[in-house]
Amino acid sequence: MLIVVCIKEVPDAAYINIDPATGTLIREGVPSIINPFDNHALEESLRLKEKHGFRVAAISMGPTSAGETLRNALAMGVDEVVLLSDPVFSGSDTLATTKVLAEAIKRLAEKEEVAIVICGKQTIDGATAQVGPGIATRLKYSQLTLVDQIQNVDDQAGKVRVRRMLEGRYEIVEATLPALITVVPQINTPREPTVRMQMMAEDAEVTLWDNEVMKLPKESIGVKGSPTRVRKIFSQIMPESEILGDGIYDPEGAAHLLIDTLTEEDILSL
Amino acid sequence: MGVRQSWKKGEPIMAEEDYKGVWVFVEQTDGEPATVSWELLSVGADLARKLDVELCTMVIGDNVEHLCQESFVYGASKVYLIDAPVFHDYRTEPYYRAVRYLIDKYKPEVVLLGSTSLGRDLTGPVATELNTGLTEGCTELDIDENRLLLQTRPAYSGNIMATIVNERARPQISTVRPRAMEVPEKDTSRTGEIVRESMDISEEDIGVKVLEVIDSSKGEAGAIDITAADIIVCAGRGIQSSENFQMIQELADELGGAVACSRAAVEDGLTPVESWVGQSGTTVRPRIYIACGVSGAIQHTAGMRDSDVIIAINYDKQAPIFEVATFGIEGDVLQVVPAITRYVRELRARK
Ligand SMILES: Cc1cc2nc3c(=O)[nH]c(=O)nc-3n(C[C@H](O)[C@H](O)[C@H](O)COP(=O)(O)OP(=O)(O)OC[C@H]3O[C@@H](n4cnc5c(N)ncnc54)[C@H](O)[C@@H]3O)c2cc1C
Ligand SMILES: Nc1ncnc2c1ncn2[C@@H]1O[C@H](COP(=O)(O)O)[C@@H](O)[C@H]1O
Asked: Which residue of chain A has the CA closest to B220?
């Protein structure tokens, strides 16, 4: 049985800056990292491997530089990695992205039965949380989002039981396999790769599937396969903040000033 | 109109004039509606007016007919209702099949859902099945001169805003963040038309079962829902010890608000709460957000910068939290927070 984990390389939010003249993103010099949520997805796939003896394949769609993120996944203990990269894939929105990722999972499933696909809850750049559900729909897998515990996997009975973390409540849910699971960061603490694994991974092979291999119709992928377009990008201007009183030497006074200001401006009524 | 020209030969043609109406999905749990559904009716009414079309809701569930009248009261003129036991617990599959069935049959041009756990679980499958685009987590919606839906949402951790359009496929689907829009005025005199539909789905067809629900609003241990809170008092690492969390709780109680945390505060075990505000946690948009001893890392502000009024209390005046704050107090949280609580109590006692 195979576990497939979907990981994406994203710009590190901590280094993102806006060009004040144009209001656009400055991309130069912004380091790429694995989408932090996907690190938890990766960790969970490795725990399933250790517990149930499943094999783990990691896939990523992105530019060829994303191969580095996949090599890191190998260093952490993934068995196989596939990079989905082709100029015709670029500019894909969620609809087109899930087309490529679902097709890749189908190809993997031809060789070995897939039990579970794991995604992060969302990415930090797109933050749509829709890629996982889109893949589940295309593959007709059970969909289990926002999972904070995988409680049991019974591949004989073809069932998985998880806990989902929702607004104000948890839900214990059982589903038939194969299933697609998206995970929240509370699910685990990701491990660091060992130096030995890192060295081994450096020379490891990253399989590349471009569209020669995938053979997806060009109208269904990339810009052509994406119904949504970004029309405008602009930065959000935050109003100047107002410092109230002298909180260091007169905390009481500052506290009074705050509450008086809030009530006078009708922000708070007591 | 520009929409059809963008279609290339060989692509399925969707005649946009066949698609009419603005629809809102009414989210409910055990018959209890999510407030965001009514918030969607306020922006929905604005869009419907600009497009000169009807504003409708979809009500799907088990014993949920009362939500039809509520939809009318909040501004809808028509409700598509699917009411059957199989929809008792929310599960992705029966719900997306029901939504898809209604959209296929009645062809709305705009469909709005809340950007909640449930809304985000449901939207992807619906859009995928209908082969249309979706925009997640919008905070503003408008209509342009070509009747296109302008969907504006924060991107890159709230650093920028992006306006997204779907020129080629229908319906145009958006999810909208809770509390981004006001709940419309209630008008109890309003009524409308109920269109009853049924779906051929049996329990045996569904591979997912909800075995148990652990609900913190019923006093059971669980994650607290802070997305609905009007006032949030957030504890950062600056509160320094778990004993000091008590003063955060007291201020929140005094103001009738909820407590929240930064990720660092959760990781350091300073709070009894398991979830945090921010990019990897919950996105909130309260009327008042009080950040106590929070530095304001971009991963934190991504989840709260849209709050109406932000108050920062921090003794380091260089802390980036002051860049997103409306009001700031430079000072020691351990002194300032109890001082605020005391003063609020004092003012209340005077009344
Ligand atoms: C991938 C990733 C995702 C993340 N996601 C999130 C997220 O979703 N949410 C989140 O919150 N964080 C997130 N983080 C962590 C984030 O980067 C910060 O580390 C975190 O927000 C810091 O929390 P803090 O402000 O409470 O603590 P600190 O950064 O340690 O700040 C504490 C502040 O308290 C002040 N202070 C200390 N003592 C006092 C006192 N007595 N009185 C007044 N002020 C005092 C200090 O001046 C300081 O500014 C993420 C990080 C990564 C790498
Ligand atoms: N290009 C990609 N390659 C691999 N996995 C992806 C890609 N985009 C999204 N995912 C997966 O889908 C999840 C949700 O992404 P999103 O819908 O963009 O917020 C991520 O956490 C990843 O697990």
From this structure: A169
Domain membership flag for residue A231: no
Cβ of A62 less than 6 Å from ligand 2: yes
Reported pTM: 0.91
Supply the ipTM of this predicted assembly: 0.91
Domain, as residue range, for A262: 238-270
Whole-angstrom distance, CA of residue A61 vs CA of residue A87: 11
Closest C-alpha to B175, from B103, B120, B107, B117: B120
Angstrom distance (rounded) from CA B198 to CA B123: 21
Ligand 1 centroid, distance to B254 Cα (angstroms): 25
Asked if B133 contacts A103 with a C-beta cutoff of 8 angstroms, the reply is no
Q: Does residue B128 form part of some domain?
A: yes
| CA B264 to ligand 1 center in whole angstroms | 5
Q: Give the domain range for residue B191.
A: 2-201
Q: Are A135 and A119 in contact (CB under 8 A)?
A: yes
Q: What is the tally of structural domains in chain A?
A: 2
Cα–Cα distance measured from residue A220 to residue B8, given in angstroms and rounded to the nearest whole number: 12
pLDDT, averaged in runs of 10, over chain A (270 residues): 97 75 71 93 98 97 92 94 96 94 98 98 90 98 98 96 93 98 95 86 90 95 92 82 93 96 93
Q: How far is the C-alpha of B30 from the C-alpha of B203, rounded, in Å?
A: 18
A119 lines ligand 2 (CB under 6 A): yes
Number of domains in chain B: 2
Over the stretch A39-82, which tens digit does the pLDDT of each residue have? 999 999 999 999 999 999 999 999 998 999 999 999 999 999 99
Q: Residue A226 falls within a domain, yes or no?
A: no
Note whether A122 and A145 are within 8 A (CB): no
What CATH number does residue A43 fall under?
A: 3.40.50.620
Residue of A nearest to B337 (CA): A255
- Whether residue B6 is predicted with pLDDT greater than 60 in this model: the reply is no
Q: What is the 3-state secondary structure (H, E, C) of chain A?
A: CEEEEECCEEECHHHCEECCCCCCEECCCCCEEECHHHHHHHHHHHHHHHHHCCEEEEEEECCHHHHHHHHHHHHHCCCEEEEECCHHHCCCCHHHHHHHHHHHHHHHHHHCCEEEEEEECCCCCCCCCCHHHHHHHHHCCEEEEEEEEEEEEECCCCEEEEEEEECCEEEEEEEECCEEEEECHHHCCCCCCCHHHHHHHHCCCCEEECHHHHCCCHHHCCCCCCCEEEEEEEECCCCCCEECCCCCCCHHHHHHHHHHHHHHCCCCCC
Nearest to B340 among A125, A241, A259 (CB): A259
Q: How far is CA B190 from CA B76, B110, B183, B187, B264, in A?
A: 9, 23, 16, 6, 49
CA neighbor of B91 nearest in space, from B217, B205, B225? B205
